[in-house]
Amino acid sequence: MTGNKLTSNQSSKAEPTFEAIQFEIYLKMTGNKLTSNQSSKAEPTFEAIQVMVVDDDDVLCLSIVAGMLKTFKYQVVTVKSAEDALGTLRSRSNFFQLIVTDVHMPVMDGFELQNRVSEEFNLPVVLP
Question: Is this structure's pTM higher than 0.70?
Answer without folding.
Answer: no
